[in-house]
């Protein structure tokens, strides 16, 4: 695995000054990790770009990306979307902006015939880019999200409240942050996922969140929406796999017709999981993706 931060970004650690600064440009250069296969495939398939969900980062998809690089013989780029991980912050946070960032990343790295994989927020980003610029995308894998307007689960708003309370408390240890977050989320794995965003700024005794809570809190309504409304006006005519957790409410049966209108060549893979499909059922997810992306004889 190689770790990179896209050009125009200093390669300093997470406490570097640029981490707290806002960029004034519209397109964000994305931080990323590159997982290269030990035995590259001889077919013409290009790279895979893997996008995380809200409050996530490239590190969340490290294990599954290594497995996909191994099984498919293709390089996998896991990226930090804007306002997440090691990528810069920007006050605009919606799917068109995030899709444009990914398009810029693909252009910078000269990626062709690219597969997009995204979970939740990353899934809608992948769908948006596929519909906006189908010529630069070979296929997509959308994980537990659909091209519809749907309110986010109420938990995300509570998470923002809890994380703001943690920062206001000036915690010095993750255990102190976890004790506060228990008032907002019962699940330990979910709390650990959220607290993975904590870091200690240089010359500071207290911990802060890498993600800009005010920006993301203001963006929650946008993240429930989908920028394309009319499947008669735009569609992605290439292969698409929609993976949904059968215990999740993000891809109801009622959404399947609209998925078919925007993505007429879509396939559906149901996995016995909640919204966090990849974390809950990594092997089932790996099998579904490998089957979908393997060259057809």
Automatic annotation (TrEMBL):
Residues covered by the AB hydrolase-1 domain: 47-280
Hydrolase as UniProt keyword: yes
InterPro entries assigned: AB_hydrolase_1, AB_hydrolase_fold
Keyword Hydrolase among UniProt keywords: yes
One of the record's GO molecular function terms: carboxylic ester hydrolase activity
A Gene Ontology cellular-component term: mitochondrion
PANTHER family found in the cross-reference section: PROTEIN ABHD11
Protein family membership: Belongs to the AB hydrolase superfamily.
Name of the featured protein: AB hydrolase-1 domain-containing protein
Organism: Venustampulla echinocandica
Lineage: Eukaryota, Fungi, Dikarya, Ascomycota, Pezizomycotina
């Amino acid at each position: 695995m190689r770790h990179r931060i896209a050009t125009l970004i200093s390669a300093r650690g997470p406490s570097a000054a640029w981490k707290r600064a806002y960029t004034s440009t519209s397109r964000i250069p994305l931080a990323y990790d590159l997982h290269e296969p030990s035995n590259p495939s001889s077919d013409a398939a290009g790279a895979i770009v893997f996008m995380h969900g809200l409050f996530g980062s490239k590190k969340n998809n490290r294990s599954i990306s290594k497995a996909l690089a191994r099984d498919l013989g293709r390089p996998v780029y896991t990226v930090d979307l804007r306002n997440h991980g090691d990528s810069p912050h920007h006050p605009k946070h919606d799917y068109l902006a995030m899709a444009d960032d990914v398009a810029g990343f693909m252009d910078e790295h000269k990626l062709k015939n690219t597969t997009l994989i995204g979970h939740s927020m990353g899934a809608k980003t992948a769908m948006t880019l596929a519909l906006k610029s189908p010529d630069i995308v070979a296929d997509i894998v959308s994980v537990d999200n659909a091209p519809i307007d749907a309110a986010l689960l109420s938990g995300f708003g509570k998470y923002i409240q809890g994380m703001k309370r943690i920062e206001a408390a000036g915690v010095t240890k993750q255990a102190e942050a976890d004790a506060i977050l228990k008032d907002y989320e019962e699940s330990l794995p979910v709390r650990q996922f959220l607290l993975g965003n904590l870091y200690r700024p240089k010359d500071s005794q207290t911990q802060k969140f890498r993600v800009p809570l005010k920006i993301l809190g203001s963006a929650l309504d946008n993240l429930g929406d989908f920028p394309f409304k009319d499947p008669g006006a735009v569609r992605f005519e290439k292969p698409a796999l929609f993976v949904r957790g059968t215990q999740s409410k993000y891809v109801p049966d009622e959404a399947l017709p609209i998925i078919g209108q925007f993505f007429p060549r879509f396939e559906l893979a149901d996995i016995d999981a909640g919204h966090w499909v990849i974390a809950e059922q990594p092997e089932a997810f790996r099998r579904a993706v490998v089957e979908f992306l393997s060259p057809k004889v």
